[in-house]
Amino acid sequence: MTLQIANTWHAALDYFQRTGTPHVLATQITSAGSTPREPGARMIITEDAIFDTLGGGTFEWQTIAAARARLAEQCYGLSLEAFSLGGRSGQCCGGFVNILLEAFSGSSAMLAVFGAGHVGREIVKLSAPLPWQLYWYDSRSDAFDNICENTQRHPRLTYQALHDAQQCVAELPSCAHALVLTHQHDEDYALIAALIQRDDLGSIGLIGSESKWASFRGRLQRDDYTAEQIQRVRSPIGCLHGKKLSNKTPYAIALTVITELLWLADTPAPQDTRGLDPQALRALFDESSTTTS
After folding, report:
1. Which of these, 85, 21, 90, lies nearest to 51 by C-alpha position?
2. Choosing a second label site near 273 at 20 to 30 A (CA), which of 15, 66, 76, 251?
3. Alpha-carbon torsion (71, 76, 82, 85), positive or negative
4. What is the 3 state secondary structure string of 224-265?
């Protein structure tokens, strides 16, 4: 990974927190005997990059391996790694360190918005403060020419031309939530037909009236899509508790759509994100204090 950021843990932490990239903050929290660095040393670890150092040597590479294993297994939250430098790590300094690993999942949800019209733009702007990764598509050559500067600098937004519905949908990450709101009904249909063939997406939403969805549903049935596939489409979008707003402005529609997505994309935190056991942590620091005194 080549990034234009300083090779310091705090610069990397800021960057990865803003961009929603999975990463681990490794912090040396205790030190006994001779160790490369003192408590408070930190480094950032991603699946393919490291920033800053805990002092190098075998134990640092073991820390990196442990951090990347947690990322690969999607085990987010806090964990503790203990290193006897003369034992587990085989280093001549022979001290003892404990490393706290804080694994961050990055973006809590992924959203694919098909259409850069008035509603699409409001949805993108409203979702900017949320920890979501956004993918934005439109088939018009000038669709993104006049988007506002704040949107262009959105750290978690990727926008690109939509050339082929099947290929574009095939490239979406698993569990992504898709919203279809392009400027053409035929394009909407092609996207919906491609999306319902994937059973690993978080949700599929289609903008439009009830009559539009009735027309699409009949067409999908005639094209031999199954009832189970068709039922995965949510249309009209932004209907909360089965009610539709009388306010049809793009901003109002976008507000209801984002509210709906907040519920759809919400996932409870795993139990291991509640932290380390207080008794084990107290014993750890008591032992460290006794060793160094």
Report:
1. 21
2. 15
3. positive
4. CCCHHHHCCEECCCCCECCECCCCCCHHHHHHHHHHHHHHHC
Nearest to 101 by CA among 132, 66, 136, 128: 66
* Secondary structure, 3-state, 12-58: HHHHHHHHCCCEEEEEEEEEECECCCCCCCEEEECCCCEECCCCCCH
Q: What per-residue string of b and e applies to 184-218 under the rule 16 or more CB within 10 Å gives b?
A: eeebbbbbbbbbbebeebbbbbbbbeeebbeebbe
CA distances from 101 to 27, 42, 70, 79, 151 (A): 7, 10, 9, 5, 33
Task: Extract the tokens encoding 182.
Answer: 């392009």
Residues in a beta bridge with 80? 100
Using the 8-state DSSP alphabet, how is residue 8 labeled?
A: S
Q: Tell me the domains of the chain and their CATH numbers.
A: 9-106+269-292 (no CATH), 109-264 (3.40.50.720)
* Sign of the C-alpha dihedral computed for residues 218, 219, 223 and 227 taken in this order: negative
Smallest CA-to-CA distance from 127 within 170, 177, 71 is with 177
Displacement of CA 104 from its chain's centroid (Å):
9
What's the angle, vertex CA 190, arms to CA 188 and CA 193, rounded to 5?
105
Distances in Å between the alpha carbon of 69 and those of 22, 41, 53, 106? Answer: 12, 21, 18, 16
**Alpha carbons 53 and 40: distance in angstroms, whole number:** 11
Of the ranges 88-102, 195-209, 216-230, 272-286, which one carries the lowest mean pLDDT score?
A: 272-286
